[in-house]
Design goal:
Chain A is an alpha+beta fold. Chain A is built from 6 helices and 8 strands, in the order E-H-E-H-E-E-H-H-E-E-E-E-H-H. The first copy, chain A, has helices at 9-19, 38-52, 79-85, 87-96, 155-161, 163-179; strands at residues 2-5, 23-26, 59-68, 75-76, 102-113, 116-128, 143-145, 148-149. The A-B interface holds A 31-34, 36, 41, 44, 71-74, 76-78, 81-82, 84-86, 90, 94 and B 31-34, 36, 41, 44, 71-74, 76-78, 81-82, 84-86, 90, 94.
Chain lengths: 180, 180
């Protein structure tokens, strides 16, 4: 069994697409530390969650953020706090005042078992634009990827290019190689 | 002995003004968690630092932030990250676009000993203005208190009205009452 630490059943379903039916949701509230580096945050969380997980099973923890190039990576690890307090319009205006509108969504998936912790990073590179589209959540309406915002895509289209999917695919490859 | 967890000798000197000569600097890198609440962050840090402190001595940990009213407390616990990434000009412009320019500096001091953890909060209420003054650090040039920005005050003037001093004074009172 592989325990995915999340309160979101949708994430578990997405993880099963990459990792198989062994993935189970594990509702555990680990301490997120303050760090510039998503991998640090997820790795520490996975280490803590594994101590609390049933049996001797491995766990995965994920953390995501939007990193704006011209703002030195802001809001990065604090994307959800900033989304809540400033909202996407203010973030979009901060970026619009800069020359470079480039940004990346990143997800780090941390896998912890008895041997330690490994982290896997997925990225989607795009551009910050005025809000468009009704789908998705968070910063999706202002993140344009290949001419379309994440909020204009179906969840299938978004999963195909998504940072979380890319990180999960890397983890799946690694587990595959290891089990050979 | 009372161990103040900080890399800043100036903070130790300020603490001695309130708590006496028993205060010693303790250079220890505790995990700061992500939380909306400075008291949570400082209390957890103090608990962790006490485990690592020499002997059975108590420790204090402090955490500070600038809380802007119109931005629902932003940047709050992430003030130093936001200062580094956005800078004070961008923060000031975000506030200038709002009707309400009110803000507060807050410091929480957490004291941990064998009995547990207590937290003490100090606040200074002011207004966000265009940068003025060469003193201080961080957000001091845009934080106006009684007509003067923190960056225009001498360190003595600033200490007299400061949030950190207020929190240290509350801790000193509490220790006094307890030892009677």
């Amino acid at each position: 069994m592989l325990h995915f630490v999340t309160t979101n059943p949708g994430k578990v379903r997405e993880a099963r697409d990459y990792l198989g039916d062994d993935v189970r949701q594990f509702d555990y509230d680990y301490a997120e530390i303050q760090s510039d580096d998503l991998a640090d945050i997820a790795a520490r969380g996975a280490r803590e969650a594994r101590e609390a997980a049933p049996g001797d099973d491995p766990v995965i923890v994920d953390d995501s953020g939007l990193f704006v190039d011209a703002l030195d990576g802001f809001p990065g690890p604090y994307s959800s706090y900033v989304h809540e307090r400033l909202g996407i319009e203010r973030v979009q205006e901060l970026v619009a005042a800069e020359d470079d509108h480039g940004a990346a969504f990143e997800t780090v998936v941390a896998y912890a078992d008895g041997d330690g912790v490994e982290t896997f990073t997925g990225r989607a590179e795009g551009t910050i634009v005025s809000p468009r589209g009704d789908g998705g959540f968070g910063y999706d309406p202002i993140f344009e990827y290949g001419g379309t915002t994440f909020a204009e895509m179906t969840s299938e289209e978004k999963n195909d290019v998504s940072h979380r999917g890319a990180a999960l695919a890397k983890l799946a490859d690694w587990l595959d190689t290891r089990s050979r």
